[in-house]
Amino acid sequence: MNPNDNLWQTILKDLERLYNEETYNELFSPVTSTFKEQNGLITMVVENDFLKNRINKLYIGKINELATKYSKTPVRFKFISQSEVEPEPTLTDRKLTIDYRQGNLNSTYTFDSFVVGKSNMFAFRMAMKVADQPGAVANPFYIFGDVGLGKTHLMQAIGNYILDTNVEKRILYVKADNFIEDFVSLLSRNNNKTEEFNAKYKDIDVILVDDIQIMANATKTQMEFFKLFDYLYLNSKQIVITSDKPASQLTNIMPRLTTRFEAGLSVDIQVPDLEHRVNILKRKIATIDANAEVSDSILEFIATQFAANIREMEGALIRLISYAQTFNLDITMELVNDALGALLKTRKKSDALSDNNYDKIQSVVSDYFQISLQDLIGKKRHTKFTIPRHIAMYLIKLKYNIPYKTIGQLFSDRDHSTVLAACERIEKDIQLDSNLKFALDSIIKKIDSTLSKS
Ligand SMILES: Nc1ncnc2c1ncn2[C@@H]1O[C@H](COP(=O)(O)OP(=O)(O)OP(=O)(O)O)[C@@H](O)[C@H]1O
């Protein structure tokens, strides 16, 4: 018996419960065993194209949700018809197939499971195009956005899609810090490791490099990455990169890399609005526990409390559902307070701490723009200093709403009208300049995290 048959039998039981008898008997019950598995993709065979298309169009999402629920390892299902069954590969063919999905890509990070809204629509559409024609549409494809907003998910969805279309494709997902580690260990060992390094990084079709900003200051690693980048690029291999900021704002990454990143296509992911966040939560419930009943008002409450980071929002939902399951309780607002009380309290505390922290805002802004605090507050008039200065004034006004005159005193005794003009200017520019808007959002996040630690 194929090891995935037990999984399929378990899924069948749920399908029988979920759908009417006629559908179940026609579509699912005749499929008694799995056909094969490769790279986490389990293939099932049905009698004809009509059945195959119905399942793949209407029921595959639910089947994969159940697979995620019941399988210990990440797997997905695919249905083919009898006429598509190919003869088994010979032993030598099989040896050539490297398992590129296991331990490399998270198979739940797919386009299917990515909830689309205004904040990520462009990024999503372009990612689909890149996945459809790797190496041809946008190379490199650069995704940026704040922590926990879905960059890794979207990047891996590209990898999973390419693999689903062609299981032989070699897709390498690597976090920038692992690339640094691999390179450092290459330097510290003998030469025959070079071959291993090259086999891992060069003998591939697609590279997905996550959190490139981590390479800041690692000059030798950047040089090596630069060589690899050029090699892959010249061979039309798709390169996908994620970062917490636009390429133009990466600090301590060599310009020969950042300019190459800018030459491809950059897309950003913003914080989703409330309705979008609630939709993400609804989708997550289905994967955590399809039977959990969570009212819209509770979902809205969670989406409001954990607005800036989807990972945190998802964590709160998982905690709530697990809590309800453990104590066998209905999910009410009272239970939300019990289950999430500690998390909510930490957030309140960090808000309360935020009084009178003007100097912290000034130092986060100066750090972000890599200028000294003295220059931020002082009188120099180069735009390198005036833009960060205006941003710091604007943020203090936004966060504390203290008089313009008081803000002026924090910046070398400037007068009320200078601060007012600076705030109005920033307010206007963020409507027009998405890079500025992005910088502001990142700085606000950093301020919040600094204040919560104090
Ligand atoms: N639009 C979305 N639809 C469904 N799930 C999402 C979406 N956006 C984010 N998530 C989920 O939020 C979690 C965090 O996403 P992810 O790890 O991709 O964020 P990230 O931007 O790469 O964060 P980091 O900067 O920390 O690497 C994941 O579980 C992901 O599935």
From TrEMBL:
Per the record, a Pfam family? DnaA_N
Instruction: List every stretch annotated Domain I, interacts with DnaA modulators.
Output: 1-87
Q: Does the keyword Transmembrane apply?
A: no
Q: Which processes are annotated in GO (biological process)?
A: DNA replication initiation; regulation of DNA replication
InterPro entries to which the protein is assigned, alphabetical: AAA+_ATPase, Chromosome_initiator_DnaA, Chromosome_initiator_DnaA-like, Chromosome_initiator_DnaA_CS, DnaA_C, DnaA_dom, DnaA_N_dom, DnaA_N_sf
Annotated segments matching region Domain IV, binds dsDNA:
325-454
Domain of life from the UniProt record:
Bacteria
Residue ranges of every copy of the Chromosomal replication initiator DnaA C-terminal domain listed in the record: 357-426
Gene Ontology MF, one:
ATP binding
Q: Name one GO cellular component term.
A: cytoplasm
Q: Which residues bind ATP?
A: 148, 150-152
The record, for Gene3D superfamilies, names:
1.10.1750.10, 1.10.8.60, 3.30.300.180, P-loop containing nucleotide triphosphate hydrolases
Q: Which residues form the AAA+ ATPase domain?
A: 137-267
Give the family per the record: Belongs to the DnaA family.
Assembly with partners or alone: Oligomerizes as a right-handed, spiral filament on DNA at oriC.
Recorded domain comment: Domain I is involved in oligomerization and binding regulators, domain II is flexibile and of varying length in different bacteria, domain III forms the AAA+ region, while domain IV binds dsDNA.
Function, in words: Plays an essential role in the initiation and regulation of chromosomal replication. ATP-DnaA binds to the origin of replication (oriC) to initiate formation of the DNA replication initiation complex once per cell cycle. Binds the DnaA box (a 9 base pair repeat at the origin) and separates the double-stranded (ds)DNA. Forms a right-handed helical filament on oriC DNA; dsDNA binds to the exterior of the filament while single-stranded (ss)DNA is stabiized in the filament's interior.
Name the UniProt record assigns to this protein: Chromosomal replication initiator protein DnaA
